[in-house]
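Deliverable D5.2: sample structural annotation.
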Amino acid sequence: MNTQNFLVSKVNELSRPLINRFYQAHYKRSKAKSHDVVYQISSDVRVGVVRYVPINEVWLLRGLVIAPDYRNLGLASKLVIKSREQHLPCYLFCDRTLVDFYKRCGFELCQAEGLPSGLLQRFCGYKARQPKLVAMACFS
């Protein structure tokens, strides 16, 4: 499949219900909220989305989802790399198995103690339920 035809674009507020339907179909635990900045990757159809949540002076990347038929084509990394340029500094929390993927997207591991206060509290709460969770950051 030619992935050059897939474009990354910011989603407008009117499309939020469609984004939430996409999440409902592919990742039920996520939902775009009114303060989130959402990006999609699409050609003729939407095949992936990601959200950036503003927390104080930083951004938290959340809800990266690619439709199953379009996975392992490089679309997730294209979506993250193109969209994060507008949202720096950017942090994310992920399972250890995803560290290499996010490193290829420009993120680096960071210690929990180095997280901004608004993120540290969230991270500690998530980590209590998901012990393999790590924090990563991107500054450029």
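Annotation notes: Helices lie at 16-26, 75-84, 99-104, 117-129. The chain has a mean pLDDT of 93.
The annotation will be released with the project's public dataset once the embargo ends.
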